[in-house]
Recover the amino acids of this structure.
């Protein structure tokens, strides 16, 4: 167990409450939400609707809900079909990966609900609501306020199997088990879309070798093994581990990397996701066809200058 | 986490041992051969197995009304357990306790327990004893989602965190406190959130994945053993049977029930072992047959054991 903070239900309700108030202040008329088990959005709304005389209409998405990660994917598909202008996500890298598979070209404003994430912003809810609202109200400026994120596409036998928004790790551990990665010893190879010095997680290893920004047209490919460079990196909150890097190189866009894997697991965005029981042929490609991401600072800077 | 073949097969074996015992108990109860109540652990085997694999006889566990799985995983004797279910003199409580009161202090089993939430202060007290003795032992507390709504949960976690006790609290969330669904009994989904209020780590895992439980429990046990205090481990699972044997069970959605049955921890793990070449189907069937034989022997032992005599009624009520 690391020493991270995962936001509980009460905190998530508070974040949503503040997002809704931010959206209302920007004149947003309607939002749709994923109806999940804890009823975070209805509970957030109930606490402010009367007191603030909200005009904003808040609707649950009409969709099948299984209370699993796939719900985020299905909600993103439904929101895309509705023609929304922006999707505000609450969650971590895993939630955003699910949303990224279904959102198409609808931009995301990802809000982190824990301290162990790279893709979403650690941003206050009111600010996210204001930025999301202003962004949605100004379609003509949206291209200036967004960037297209990179992603890594994993395929087996030519068929796309999954994507990662931040990292793909090849690990010698045979089982997914509890998913978390607590030590670096079983790490064999790591592919990164980004590697920023102030990020936690596996991408922090890359940041100590060669920083890569979210907008750089390349990633990193790191091979682990003995007799290499020692790198000390914060792979989880409070967990600073040593890695032995045999070699590394920049990972170019659109270059197909063949992988012959046997008896191990593939971790996507920091969690073991795919078990490899026997030898299998995989390919991996870094591309720039990930979700469009709203930069709240750019959006809010515009509010200031127009004032 | 690298796991060797012996350990992996041991995890499988323990799960099958529990399941075999429980399904036999179901048959015996339906045939009116077992008096009283039985609350079966079938479906939840991965939790007791994954947690107790980290424990030795000097560690303590406190169990629940659904305790057979915990007792077996901790090393309880099948003959004496079955004899207790049969209310025989050779049983763990000399036939006077039944399913919900089996205990074996010699191997750290502080007892199953008929009172919901009662395991919490018992395990916390055992944790205090472990800390005071300083011999490296720890205490593990099993309880359910319903118990996590009771005062004993909150009082125990508060004391354990304040005194940094070596206790691992294992909440087996099977989503139903008897017939009350978790959704209507608490405003949160992830019970591990409750750890935050006590300043201890809390983590939720797939309780039907024995390796997920084993790995997460390993971290919590390590924390406790190395003097870093208590943890809350929430294992989300599903009981295959009713709250107790014989109930009509009208409160669970049958579609949801079917979805959970498809996540049965034993076939899931079996498929993993075979797919990786760790075991063959024949290897696993041999393990299954072994426990079928052992459980059959336990039934014979119980059937052939004497009843307790009427004049023993007031013996063993108090410790001497």
């Amino acid at each position: 167990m690391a020493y991270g903070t995962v936001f509980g239900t009460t905190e998530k309700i508070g974040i949503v409450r503040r997002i809704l108030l931010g959206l209302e202040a920007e004149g947003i008329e309607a939002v749709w939400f994923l109806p999940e088990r804890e009823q975070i959005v209805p509970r957030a709304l109930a606490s402010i609707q009367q007191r603030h005389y909200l005009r904003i209409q808040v609707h649950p998405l009409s969709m099948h809900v299984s209370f699993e990660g796939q719900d985020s994917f299905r909600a993103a598909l439904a929101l895309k079909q509705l023609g929304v202008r922006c999707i505000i996500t609450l969650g971590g890298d895993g939630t955003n990966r699910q949303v990224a598979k279904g959102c198409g070209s609808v931009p995301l404003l990802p809000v982190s609900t824990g301290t162990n994430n790279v893709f979403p912003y650690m941003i206050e809810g009111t600010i996210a609501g204001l930025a999301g609202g202003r962004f949605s109200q100004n379609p003509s400026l949206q291209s200036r306020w967004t960037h297209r994120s990179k992603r890594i596409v994993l395929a087996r036998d030519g068929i796309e199997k999954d994507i990662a928004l931040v990292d793909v790790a090849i690990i010698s551990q045979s089982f997914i088990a509890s998913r978390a990665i607590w030590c670096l010893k079983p790490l064999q190879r790591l592919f990164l879309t980004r590697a920023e010095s102030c990020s936690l997680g596996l991408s922090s290893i890359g940041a100590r070798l060669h920083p890569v920004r979210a907008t750089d047209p390349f990633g990193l490919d790191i091979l682990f093994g003995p007799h290499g460079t020692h790198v000390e990196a914060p792979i989880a909150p409070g967990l600073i581990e040593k890695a032995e890097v045999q070699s590394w190189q920049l990972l170019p866009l659109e270059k197909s990397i063949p992988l012959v894997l046997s008896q191990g697991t593939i971790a996507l965005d920091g969690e073991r996701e795919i078990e490899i029981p026997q030898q299998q042929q995989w390919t991996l490609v870094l591309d720039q066809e990930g979700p469009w991401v709203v930069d709240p600072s750019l959006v809010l800077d515009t509010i200031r200058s127009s004032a | 986490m690298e796991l060797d073949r012996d350990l992996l097969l041991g995890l499988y074996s323990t799960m099958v041992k529990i399941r075999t015992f429980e399904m036999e108990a179901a048959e015996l109860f339906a045939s009116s051969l077992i008096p009283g109540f039985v609350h079966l652990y079938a479906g939840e085997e991965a939790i007791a197995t994954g947690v107790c694999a980290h424990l030795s006889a000097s560690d303590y566990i406190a169990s629940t009304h659904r305790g057979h799985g915990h007792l077996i995983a901790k090393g309880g004797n099948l003959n004496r357990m079955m004899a207790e279910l049969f209310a025989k003199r050779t049983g763990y409580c000399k036939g006077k306790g039944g399913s919900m009161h089996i205990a074996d202090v010699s191997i750290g089993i502080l007892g199953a327990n008929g009172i919901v939430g009662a395991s919490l202060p018992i395990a916390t007290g055992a944790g205090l004893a472990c800390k005071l003795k300083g011999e490296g032992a720890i205490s593990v507390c099993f309880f359910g989602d319903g118990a996590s709504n009771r005062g004993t949960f909150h009082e125990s976690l508060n004391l354990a965190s304040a005194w940094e006790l070596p206790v691992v609290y294992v909440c087996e969330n099977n989503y139903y406190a008897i017939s009350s669904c978790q959704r209507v009994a608490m405003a949160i989904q992830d019970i591990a959130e409750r750890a935050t209020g006590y300043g201890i780590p809390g983590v939720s895992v797939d309780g039907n994945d024995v390796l997920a439980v084993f790995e997460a429990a390993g971290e919590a046990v390590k924390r406790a053993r190395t003097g870093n205090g208590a943890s809350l481990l929430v294992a989300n699972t599903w009981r295959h049977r009713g709250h107790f044997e014989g109930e009509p069970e009208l409160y669970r959605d049958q579609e949801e029930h079917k979805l959970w049955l498809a996540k049965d921890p034993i076939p899931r793990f079996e498929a993993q072992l075979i797919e990786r070449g760790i075991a063959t189907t024949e290897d696993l069937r041999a393990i299954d047959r072994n426990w079928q034989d052992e459980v059959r022997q336990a039934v014979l032992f119980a059937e052939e054991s004497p009843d307790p005599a009427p004049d023993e009624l007031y013996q063993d009520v108090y410790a001497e």
User: Anything to note?
Assistant: The mean pLDDT of chain A is 93. Residues 151-287 of chain A form a domain with the Tumour Suppressor Smad4 fold (CATH 2.60.200).
